[in-house]
Design goal:
- With 185 residues, the chain is an alpha/beta fold.
- It has 9 helices and 7 strands; from the N terminus they run αββααβααβαββαβαα.
- The chain has helices at residues 2-8, 26-34, 68-84, 98-107, 112-117, 126-133, 141-158, 168-175, 178-184, and strands at 14-15, 22-23, 88-93, 121-125, 134-135, 138-139, 162-166.
- The strands form 3 sheets. Strands 4-3-7 form a 3-stranded parallel β-sheet, with helices on both faces. A two-stranded antiparallel ribbon has the order 1-2. Strands 5-6 form a two-stranded antiparallel sheet.
- The protein is globular and about 45 Å long.
- The chain starts with a helix and ends with a helix.
Length: 185
């Protein structure tokens, strides 16, 4: 969404001097969301339709959502397509979201036991994973690599492409740990 707003000229990015990642000023994003382009009750019309499955190799994106149903449906579709395409799929979600995602995948006919046993699918509890690499309120880079990087690297050895969904940043943000969330992001 941010990239689409950037490309359409609604939002202007700043490039990180080292990584060249796009960065956006919070004030500009809030201003865009509060502008009179459309009434606030129709704010969703500002958000371009985006299919998670259209992102390229090695891309990363952030999805803002207004309700959990949208999140659960989007993650489920993303993971379902990964498995159907013969790709590895990793879900790192909260205890509240993970069972709902898996319920939808099962309802859509996915045999989660089989894809787990084949090593194609892995579901992890986001809070438990955070506990493995957070030192107080700060993520430890080496511990993050051991806890998360190793999982992704192992999947990359076994599958031609790996799709992953992670909810750790959202949990930290909700907990009020903005600095830790930014560092993980």
């Amino acid at each position: 969404t941010l990239r689409n707003w950037d490309n359409s000229g609604k939002l202007k990015s700043i490039r990180h001097p080292v990584s060249d990642y796009r960065m956006y000023r919070r004030e500009e994003l809030e201003l865009l969301l509060q502008t009179g382009i459309v009434p606030s009750d129709r704010r969703r019309s500002l958000t371009p339709s985006f299919d998670w499955n259209e992102i390229g190799d090695r891309e990363h994106f952030v999805q803002f959502y207004e309700n959990e149903k949208f999140l659960i449906d989007s993650v489920s579709s993303y993971i379902e397509r990964a498995i159907a395409a013969g790709e590895g799929a990793v879900v790192i979600a909260s205890k509240g979201h993970l069972p709902r995602i898996q319920r939808i995948l099962k309802r859509r006919g996915l045999d989660l036991v089989a894809v787990r046993e084949s090593g194609q699918y892995l579901a992890l509890d986001a809070r438990e994973l955070l506990a493995k690499f957070m030192v107080g309120d700060v993520p430890d880079a080496a511990k993050f690599d051991d806890a998360v990087g190793t999982v992704i690297a192992d999947f990359a050895k076994a599958w031609p492409k790996v799709r992953a969904f992670g909810e750790m940043v959202a949990l930290l943000w909700t907990d009020g740990n903005r600095s830790g969330a930014r560092q993980i992001e």
